[in-house]
């Protein structure tokens, strides 16, 4: 379809719609800041005791489900990650990394931790400050999301998006990097909705609750936390796994933003305006 | 526990600086900035207030079964105090050791190990959580601190119990490397707060703090001072060493260690 104006042929194929409310945009960026700082300070905290256990207790000498460390061998020192009985060489990044030109034995490298040097007390200070901000921001988002019907209207999958046939087509489309256009781009796609719901209502709350289960005072106030996760050390391990899943989500999320039109997506999360390109246009 | 007052201007300035912290290389100077540090520390007061509200005075830490006890319990911090005084005390099985209790009390006292063992004891199997992240479960037997505080009688202005220890974790000329800890009266009178002289059914080993250590079960491991020599009741923590209420607190760790 073409519209012609006095100035000649001009494609009127793009319309700007309002995609994100001010509450969504603000809480999105505060959340991004919190998750980044929680992750980096969390790795600092992990470095203080780079082993994970399952159950009620776990310390040096107890069987670990994961450990990151440096070990000496005939060919010198190397960094290793052990998961169960599997040992992976990770020299340079995990276990053994370079700081100021010298090899240093530390689980996560200096460029991934806050602060860069080993300082558990400061890492904890950053972690707990941004944990509070993260929770407060999350509550604002949820309150606004329920009151404005953002969750019900934008995040809950529509009936037609949940059929196996539709989801399968979406998986193929994603694999081919074909993204919805036209009217279909006015709503989130089914996979997008499912992953957002899983992150907002499962993964992030699990981060908070497993984090609280590591607090001896919270365990005294709510002993049921220990029963839910099978002990403080299990909760610590789940905290690490859920953090890894959040990182995985962020990587896929940012990849999708870049692949499906980075400027349009970024504009919509800053100004709220999102451009819909009409389907079947001949550009 | 904050270094200087938190005003609204400081909060905004520090918050804005912290928010600009995303480039990683920028975080180290920010972490050392006094305003940022004050803002970050403000969360600690909030944490303590909220946790105390949720806990109440007497919520108990979970107590476990004998089958849950860790097969090995890591010795952390000092494994044997280095002083000649301690060596002499250990040599005769702590027969000449006395726990001094003084400061803001009505009847300062000194308790021998036999005195303490003659008092009603409490035994509890609890989890020890190190600030580093590991946990171990052990059985502890000792005298509730409340019993001792009742025996000496607190002055009305006493607010903190300070635990002075025999071990020096960092060798210094002025003695500031001497281990000490402090708790407030909420934790001091908590039923699970005990002065433990036995672990897993045997006398406390030197590695775990012989002859006496503190157990304060709703807080992290560094609060559980070992090698107790003296309990001092004070109104303020400001005049003790670094003024933050403990060896690790003077080195940046949180005074309230419930998280």
Automatic annotation (TrEMBL), chain A:
Q: Where is the Cytochrome b561 bacterial/Ni-hydrogenase domain?
A: 19-272
Where is this protein primarily located? membrane
Q: Which GO terms describe its molecular function?
A: electron transfer activity; heme binding
Any GO BP: respiratory electron transport chain
Where, subcellularly, is it found? Cell membrane
The reply to whether Acyltransferase figures as a keyword in the UniProt entry is no
Q: Does the keyword field hold Plastid?
A: no
Family matches, as InterPro entries: Cyt_b561_bac/Ni-Hgenase, Di-haem_cyt_TM, Hydrogenase_cytochrome
What's its membrane topology? Multi-pass membrane protein
Keyword terms:
Cell membrane, Membrane, Transmembrane, Transmembrane helix
Which species is listed as the source? Acuticoccus sediminis
Q: Which residues form a coiled coil?
A: none
Annotated Pfam families: Ni_hydr_CYTB
What are the annotated GO cellular component locations? plasma membrane
Organism superkingdom: Bacteria
Protein name listed in UniProt: Cytochrome b561 bacterial/Ni-hydrogenase domain-containing protein
Transmembrane ranges? 26-46, 126-147, 196-218, 238-259
From TrEMBL, chain B:
Q: Which Pfam families has this protein been placed in?
A: Oxidored_molyb
In terms of InterPro entries, this protein maps to: OxRdtase_Mopterin-bd_dom, OxRdtase_Mopterin-bd_sf, TAT_signal
**Source organism superkingdom:** Bacteria
What Gene3D superfamilies does its record include? Oxidoreductase, molybdopterin-binding domain
Q: Where is the Oxidoreductase molybdopterin-binding domain?
A: 95-235
Q: What protein name applies here? A: Molybdopterin-binding protein
């Amino acid at each position: 379809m073409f519209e012609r104006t006095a100035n000649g042929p001009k494609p009127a194929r793009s319309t700007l719609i309002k995609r994100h409310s001010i509450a969504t945009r603000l809480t999105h960026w505060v959340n991004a800041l919190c998750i980044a700082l929680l992750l980096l300070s969390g790795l600092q905290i992990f470095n203080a005791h780079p082993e994970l256990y399952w159950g009620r207790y776990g310390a040096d000498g107890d069987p670990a489900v994961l450990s990151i460390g440096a070990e000496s061998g005939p060919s010198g020192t190397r960094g290793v990650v052990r998961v169960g009985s599997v040992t992976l060489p990770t020299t340079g990044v995990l276990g053994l990394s370079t700081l100021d030109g010298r090899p240093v034995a530390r689980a996560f490298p200096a460029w991934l931790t806050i602060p860069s040097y080993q300082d558990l007390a400061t890492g904890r200070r950053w972690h707990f400050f941004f944990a509070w901000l993260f929770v407060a921001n999350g509550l604002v988002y949820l309150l606004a999301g329920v009151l404005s019907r953002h969750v019900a209207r934008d995040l809950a999958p529509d009936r037609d998006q949940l059929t196996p046939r539709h989801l399968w087509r979406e998986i193929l489309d994603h694999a081919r990097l074909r993204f919805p256009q036209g009217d279909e781009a006015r709503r989130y796609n089914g996979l997008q909705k499912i992953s957002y719901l899983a992150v907002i209502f499962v993964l992030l709350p699990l981060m908070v609750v497993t984090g609280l289960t590591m607090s001896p005072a919270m365990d005294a106030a709510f002993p049921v936390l220990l029963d839910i996760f099978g002990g403080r050390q299990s909760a610590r391990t789940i905290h690490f796994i859920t953090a890894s899943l959040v990182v995985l989500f962020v990587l896929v999320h940012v990849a999708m933003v870049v692949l499906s039109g980075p400027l349009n997506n970024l504009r919509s999360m800053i100004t709220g305006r999102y451009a819909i390109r009409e389907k079947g246009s001949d550009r | 526990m904050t270094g200087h007052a938190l005003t609204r201007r400081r909060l905004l300035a520090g918050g804005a600086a912290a928010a600009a912290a995303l480039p990683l290389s920028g975080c180290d100077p920010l972490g050392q900035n006094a305003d940022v540090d004050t803002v970050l520390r403000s969360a600690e007061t909030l944490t303590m207030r909220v946790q105390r509200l949720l806990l109440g005075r007497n919520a108990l830490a979970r107590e476990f079964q004998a089958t849950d006890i860790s097969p090995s319990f890591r010795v952390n911090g000092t494994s044997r105090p280095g002083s000649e005084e301690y060596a002499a005390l250990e040599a005769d099985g702590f027969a000449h050791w006395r726990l001094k209790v003084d400061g803001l009390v009505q009847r300062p006292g000194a308790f021998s190990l036999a005195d303490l063992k003659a008092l009603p004891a409490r035994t509890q199997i609890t989890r020890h959580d190190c600030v580093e992240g590991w946990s171990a479960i052990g059985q502890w037997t000792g005298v509730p601190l409340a019993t001792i505080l009742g025996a000496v009688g607190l002055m009305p202005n006493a607010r903190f119990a300070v635990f002075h220890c025999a071990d020096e974790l960092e060798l210094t000329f002025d003695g500031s490397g001497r281990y000490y800890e402090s708790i407030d009266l909420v934790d001091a009178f908590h039923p699970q707060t005990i002065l433990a002289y036995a672990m897993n059914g045997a006398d406390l080993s030197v590695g775990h703090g012989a002859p006496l250590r503190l157990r304060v079960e709703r807080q992290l491991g560094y609060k559980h001072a070992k090698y107790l020599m003296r309990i001092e009741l004070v109104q303020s923590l400001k005049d003790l060493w670094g003024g933050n209420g403990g060896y690790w607190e003077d080195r940046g760790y949180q005074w309230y260690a419930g998280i």
